[in-house]
Amino acid sequence: MSKAITSQNTDYSKWYNDIVINANLADHSAVRGCMVIKPYGYAIWEKMQQTLDKMFKETGHVNAYFPLFVPKSLFEAEEKNAEGFAKECAIVTHYRLKTNPNEKGKLMVDPEAKLEEELIVRPTSEAIIWNTYKGWIQSYRDLPILVNQWANVVRWEMRTRLFLRTAEFLWQEGHTAHATKEEAIIETKKMLDVYANFVENWMAMPVVKGVKSANERFAGAEDTYTIEAMMQDGKALQAGTSHFLGQNFAKAFDVKFLTKENNLELVWATSWGVSTRLMGALIMSHSDDKGLVIPPKLAPIQVVIVPIHKGAEGLTKISNIVLPLKEKLEQKNITVKFDDDDAQRPGWKFAEYELKGVPVRIAIGERDLANGTVEIARRDELTKEIVSINELDIYIENLLINIQQNLLEKAKKRMTHFTTKVDSYQDFKKTLDEKGGFVLAHWDGTSETEEKIKEETKATIRCIPLNNTPEKGLCVYSGKESTQRVLFARAY
RNA sequence: CGGGGUGUAGCGUAGCCCGGUAUCGCGCCACAUUUGGGAUGUGGAGGUCGUCAGUUCGAAUCUGGCCACCCCGACCA
Fold first, then answer.
1. Alpha helical stretches, state H, A356-390
2. Of A298, A250, A275, A84, nearest to A174 (Cα)?
3. Looking at the predicted structure, is the pLDDT value of residue A34 above 90?
4. Using the 8-state DSSP alphabet, how is residue A470 labeled?
5. How many Å does it take to go from CA A321 to C1' B36?
6. Helices A39-58 & A181-201, crossing angle to 10 degrees?
7. Which of A133, A159, A280, A449 could form a disulfide with A164 if both were Cys (CB 3.0 to 4.6 A apart)?
8. What gap in Å lies between CA A475 and CA A484, rounded to an integer?
9. Rounded mean pLDDT of A252-262?
10. For chain B, which bases have at least one atom within 7 A of a protein Cβ?
11. How far is the CA of A209 from the C1' of B72 (A)?
12. Residues 6+ apart with CB under 8 A from A361
């Protein structure tokens, strides 16, 4: 009972924090705003990485690595991008410490060791990468460049939350260079689809694909595409973005290529990324008051087997049944843990693996040995049933698929529930306050209206959905004419 | 970065107002009995009271700086 989790209804933020800490995903560190990702949390991230990395490779991308530091002069080259990130940059100004003559055993910054030019710790890598691409690209034959990097970045946030917003975070950033605008736009949308596919089919979260409004657009982009997810508390979360960067960075870094026709032209660019923030999304999508719920495809442990026995001989009898079963499951690429640790009793283990979100639990005791059965508990529905041990591997295999689907179905229902069409500003505010979720409303297309709405309701335009059907209407705020509804929500 | 709150053993806490080196529960270690939903008994280990300085004969307790976390605002993936 030492690991009590605050219930979602009592305090959603506290619940979220309790899950992260108690399920051993991450911890606060000694560094302000930075977290320690613990082995169990990192194992989930690694599964995400592996899956995404494979998807990137399948779409023709290769990995590379660029420096953590960006010289200030490069950083400021693309003006809008630089301005957008200026307020949250960490800056290296010195390169050496020395012993403090006034305080024994202490170090101080050596004033002699000031850098000629400050180095910016990357908040994103467009600048350093496009400076590099300049040297890589001369002819249309050098294009496209389809590079991804797995890296850490630093954004000095005012307020941080584990996984959702930390000063340093892990992500991948794809940076591509193309000969034509069309090709770059196709790439931007393709990678958005990759993200949507991953989030829906691995994380079991439905998303709305869309384009950001000018206000919410990535600094330096022509267009920002996004996938927006809906959390259990009715708040939206941007799960991934893909940017069509136009020729902005090519201009800033003078990256030109010769076409087949021998004309010198500017290169077209995209960039796209998802981060450890996905961990936060995963938690807030499926988990409950008993702890974490992980979709089978991302679970570091998919099946845990808990023996219930009396004495050492009892355990041996059970192990004789369990070990071959474990092997059979592993042959089907199912990750199994047989927890035969005698220090904890079964009830404790049940609670522990529920807290950690293991999708399937198999309990096996004397009674089962006699009957040729096991008890199967599924984490998503918290139900239990007695199942014959014969062909259990096939049963489990199907159960995992079933749980994966069930989680997605539940999340889809939630998104449907949390999507409301409104036609007046009064309903708009009422829906946000009483129900939350996405609000589909007409908008006149101006930044001023968007800002006013944000000021008054804290809701932002999450995106203009890609699958929008045109529909004539009047802006809920200004009453001006509008051609389509856009997606508003309060967001993380 | 502004307003409010918190920091005592791995975790949760009492003590603080009214200064005299610390309470309880969980966890941990040993042994025994246990094992189908977070076991029980007995014995034991563990604390420079966030940190640095000040006041004092003496500081968890009073004062100040710093650090971290939580809540609310501005910023943001």
1. 366-371
2. A275
3. no
4. P
5. 17
6. 140
7. A280
8. 9
9. 97
10. 1, 10-11, 25-29, 34-39, 67-77
11. 32
12. A303, A304, A305, A306, A350, A353, A354, A376, A377, A378, A379
Residues A456, A432: contact at Cβ < 8 Å? no
Which pair of structure tokens corresponds to residue A32?
């302000």
Cβ neighbours of A340 (radius 10 Å)? 15
Domains (ranges, CATH) in chain A?
A: 12-90+126-286 (3.30.930.10), 297-402 (3.40.50.800), 419-489 (3.30.110.30)
> What is the predicted ipTM?
0.86
Q: Is A45 helix (H, G, I), strand (E, B) or coil?
A: helix
Across chain A, mean pLDDT equals 93
Q: pLDDT digit string (tens) for A114-132?
A: 999 999 999 999 999 999 9
Over residues A40-46, the mean pLDDT reads 95
The whole-number Å distance from A31's CA to B66's C1' is 14
- pLDDT at residue number A5: 83
Task: Say how far apart CA A81 and CA A218 lie, in whole Å.
Answer: 8
Look up residue A265 and give its two tokens.
């032209």
Does the pLDDT of residue A250 top 50, yes or no? yes
Q: Name the pLDDT band for A1 (thresholds 50, 70, 90).
A: very low
Nearest to A235 by CA among A430, A425, A484, A433: A433
pLDDT at A2: 42
